[in-house]
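Hi there. Long-time user, first ticket. I'm pasting a complex I've been working with (about 836 residues overall). I'd like to know whether the download I got is complete or cut off, because the file seemed smaller than I expected. Thanks.
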Amino acid sequence: MDMQVAKKKLSLKEKYKLLTRDLGWDTTYHTKDEVFPYVQYEGIKIHDWDKWEDPFRLTMDSYWKYQAEKERKFYAIIDAHAQNNGHLNITDARYLSALKIFLQAISPGEYAAGKGFARMGREFPGVGTQVACQMQSIDEIRHAQTQIHALSNYNKFYNGFHAFADARDRMWYCTLPRSFFDDALSSGPFEFMIAIGFSFEYVLTNLLFVPFMSGAAYNGDMATVTFGFSAQSDEARHMTLGLECIKFMLEQDPANLPIVQGWIDKWFWRGFRLLGVVGTMMDYMLPKRVMSWREAWNIYGVENGGALFRDLARYGIRPPKGWDDAEKGIDHMSHQFMLALYQYNFGTAFHSWIPSEDEMEWLSKKYPETFDKYYRPRWAHLSKLKAAGTPFANMGLAKLCQTCQIPTVFTEPDDPTSICQRETEYKGEKYHFCSDGCQHIFENEPEKYIQAWLPMQQLFQAPINGDLGAWMNWVSLIPGKDNGDFDGSEDERNFAAWRQQATSNQ
Amino acid sequence: MQIDLRTVSIKQQRNTFDHLARRFGDKPASRYQEGSYDIQATENLHYRPTWDPDQLIYDASITKIVMADWYALKDPRQYFYNNYTLARARQQETAEANFSFVESRGLADMLPDELKQIALDVLVPLRHAAWGANMNNSFISGYGYAAIFTQACMFHAMDNLGIAQYLSRLGLLLGDQEALTEGKTAWLDDEAWQPMRRYIEDCLVVRDPFELFVAQNVALDGLLYPLVYERIVDGYLSAKGASAVAMLCQFMNDWFDETRKWVDAVMKVAAAESEHNRAILQEWTEKWSGRAAAAMLPVVRKALGADADEVVGEEVAAFKARLKKVGVDI
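Hi, the file is complete. Here it is re-exported in full:
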């Protein structure tokens, strides 16, 4: 009889290594440079790809198994949500504006990130890195799709959701996230990892994801909060990847430090500008507030971000250059943003409104230094105009920042009474910026940023030629339904009527 | 008996999103449609890539194939993340059951040595080929155009990785870590594997995403899977008593049956688009499948010896017949 020879038991780490990085080999019919043509030009030096520590060890069979369990739950819940008119359980139809912004501005970004990670899954010459990027790629496809599916039912009943795909490519405020993701996708592989993997997924995710999803929970939106819970463990993996990536770059060669620091400076500021939207949502759009933007920043920015940069200090990394300007802007940005959205609300596919007296009390409590002094008087003025039957609409065209593409509505870091405006001349043309941060980003790569598509300039070109109606048609915005003040909107009327129908016998 | 529950009925304002209504009319859309159509940015792209300023970030013109609408390349399986993941989760359960069946009953040890050796010689180096396939599909997904096509390529890439991992586990089960080491040495140095490795490495420098699709998913896999899993594993090894190996390869067999429907649909629609496309697809298919057949021959010989030429010839003929059905005549 044959003796059964006990097989050597492999540790989980050894087994994972055999199932992933041992699959790769050094090519001989083509050079490494031919096979991986994009990893040199950014100047990042990697000496040993094997030093990459796998941030999570997930083989495909377990990936399918775990993800399938989450998918089953998610779709069961959103099916039930749709079947039972779960949308009538939200606190107030004003909450829908947050969802409309999410679908128009964030979900397409998830897809773009997925596309970028598919490229990284091919371009990095290390199997461990490639596999981690590929899993993130397919996860991002998941997130884009589950978000669309979660919000699809809202589109059936409310305005402003129906043209999200058109808005992504044409709407003036969507150019903010679009230019962010386009910027990352047009960058080299290492910068992409800092942009999306580190800055977006690690530093900023808590400020983006947590407020949106907690906002959904606080406001009775079962569909969106289910998405949030379902994506949580994916996001945790993505965060680990982002952190591993930056540590790997810094550990491989000291010469990488200044390049990485430059990217951290750039992407922190780009991300911070993008988060202006989130701050506005938290302070103004959630009928039931989770916390103020200031409070969120204190927890996720100052505390968590501070700890992160203290941890990275051993590599020589310092906090991002714009950090202090960011801190100075926190108590102002959401108010300035909402005021801008309100006066341009004839051109937004979501509603905005003047905060109620109660809400102004809340804002004044949360922003004791700034709200009553600078912003309450402006809302009071806008209320007066509205009460007089002459609501204010700013029919002038906003001057957009060439880098972040937000109208230049933010104030000087040290003077909240004057608008911050910067200018650079490049090859005989003038370019405008909202901040030092955005100006520096431009000046580091002017050839890139002069290419930016600016929606305001587009207004005067074919097919629009300066005609507002033609523009609305071009962005698929239905005037009187999708845009304008929430007060008196169809969404407001319908929600009130349906809720009445669902909760009474009238 | 039917029980009708009542829910509060309120009037919907619209059936679906604008971009779907434009494509399919004003009616409720499927989740596949919602998750796949038009979700890639198409207009007003901001910056040109610094890694290749001649391209756009999403650029349909980096392939020679021309489509009026890339969203015509739909997946007959209608896979989006959800049903793709659910399908694979079910398949991995079966695969897991098969592995533990073989393991718990000691079936690997009961395999005749000669057959076990053939299985190791043929299957283990293929884990590297599957990794190559993974990188190629990750490329097509990353640089191809239109979500409907590129998401399926990402699913395919993850499948390729899964297959590379199942093959590695098969190696570990039948021959321990040494089997993987020997397999890798063979992949790198054994003459019989060099045409195959060269084929994969040549694919790694192709940067036309659709040509890569033809080289990897149509030509190479179109011959490799029938030859290895149908002819060698199911045909030869099982007939001789090594059906345990077939159990360990069930995933690959089922996977090929399923995915070829998608591959065929992509080829059929792209070829039917224009004579220009058809001519290019024919040229690519002919070039790459000729090379794939030559690369497979020494591998098939490891199992089938002198019969290899005939078997490869038969499978090449079957491959040509399959491609003819989708409008690519080689």
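A couple of notes from our side: Chain B has a mean pLDDT of 97. Chain B is about 70% helix and 0% strand.
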